[in-house]
Amino acid sequence: MFDRTTDPDDALLSVLARAGAEAIRAEAEAVLPQLGEVEVIRSRTGLVMLPMRDPVQGTEFHLGEVLVAEAHVRLPEHGVEGYGMVTGRDLERAMAMAVLDAGLQAGVEAARIRAFADAQRAAQQAEDHETLRRIEATRVDMETF
Amino acid sequence: MAYVATRGGERAIEQAERMYRAQTGRITPSRVKEIGAALPALVDRVMGEASLYAPDLAALALAQSGGDLYEALLLLRAWRTTQPRLQVAEPVAADEGFTHRRISAAFKDIPGGQILGPTLDYAHRLLATQVLEGEAYKPAAVTPAATPAPARHPSLAAWQVAQGLVEPPMADPVDRDAIPDLTREPLLFPAKRAHTLQSLARADTGGTLALGYSAMRGYGTAHPTVNELRLSEVEVRVRHPRGVTFSAGRVKTSQAEVVTTKGKDRLRLGFAATLGWNEVKVISAATLDLNSPGAPKNSPVNEEFFLYHTEPVESSGFCIHFKLPHYVTFQSSLDALRGAQAKKEAPTPAKTEETA
């Protein structure tokens, strides 16, 4: 979740999944030539069921399904795999995420990919910050008479 | 009910469909994009009822159905069946979302404070007729506060549990892949709570409102007060093949807790949530949840009554099926009626004969 303490890989993958479509595609295209052969294991859309915990009785129940795009690649020359999943139906975004994940695993252009993720993280945090400033403007302090 | 095969009318059927589709004309990517941008509340409503979070597809379904919500839902529910289930995400807690709006009508000073968020609750409802005269309506921009709101707000129910005002949640955690799922198993009664809440999450907004409103007006067992209403975006946290978890993105959700003081010695809560932002639905649905324990059979707040009657595809489908040919069943009833009339007019026989 938003500010839950997570394993660093976890946070980085979340940042990549939220990265803008054009930005991540351009980054993946720049990294791709250095990766050698890329074998696509999977590229598809599908559904992820989203459960919620009921605050009254603590029961976990399904809210509904979320459409996602999923990509899974392998770099045979490096013996590693990469995986991407993003909400929506943009297969290229998911593939770009999988390519960058594979690059990180293979240690190819890893510094560049981390720098990209850092820039994206900063942009995402700034976006959230601005949204939360607008939300804060609606804080109400009602007085009863 | 009986069905009968009919033949003929292919040409008329083809032309009738064309006539329907001529009303909406050409569907272009820009039209779908405009629907998505201009009608977020409608897109959210359709996604919640379709039980499928896919804003682009919901906008497309609305374009294709010309705004007929039940047709749009049917398109989305049908499309959903073409997609594989990839996994079940990590369950989200009610207080975990990136919160845009969170209010309480029961408690003024709630921990974390009251955040109105995007709402027309206190706005004048004036139709902007100047738009029809050629003058665009441009809403004023929000003036942001100097400091941001916290992204997360504590759950009011958790605070009430700590205060000893409500019973603590008792359910044991369930493995996410073992959570009961209505899309794969039938709804049976008495319903599992997981089924009830899933069914309400995908229920028809109008149906939920009608039955929830009947309870609010007095045909239920408890009058609701909104304990907490929350609009958030929650993370869809999925498993990576390496075993770590990450967020694949955020989706909008609505949650409502309603409360009654009609408990034994504590407050009693009802809850509902749905995909998308749809306040009327979650408040009505939470009211039904609050009222259902011990409700009389055949009352609008009996869970079998409200869960069956608020399933949008089944209820709208059953309603419109009555337009389809029922000639044989109707003729049979008509024959029986005519037989009865003939008997009534005929001189009274010594013994009436049973109609077959």
Give structural notes:
The complex is a heterodimer of chains A (145) and B (356). Chain A has one domain (8-131). Helix content of chain A is 45%, strand content 28%. Chain A is α+β, with helices and mostly antiparallel strands and 145 residues long. In chain A, α1 crosses α4 (110-136) and α3 packs across α4. Chain B has 356 residues and is α+β, with helices and mostly antiparallel strands. The chains are: A alpha+beta (145), B alpha+beta (356). At the A-B interface, α1, β1, β2, β3 and α4 of A face α3, β1, β2, β3 and β4 of B.
- Largest sheet properties of chain B: 4 strands, antiparallel
Count of strand segments of chain B: 8
Give the strand line-up of the largest sheet of chain B.
Answer: 4-6-7-8
Largest interface: A-B, 63 and 98 residues
Number of helices of chain B: 12
Give Rg of chain B in angstroms: 25 Å
Assembly type = heterodimer
Beta-strand portion of chain A reads 25-35%
How many strands of chain A?
4
Number of domains of chain B: 2
Q: In percent, how much strand structure appears in the residues of chain B?
A: 15-25%
Number of alpha- plus pi-helical segments of chain A: 4
Shape of chain B: globular
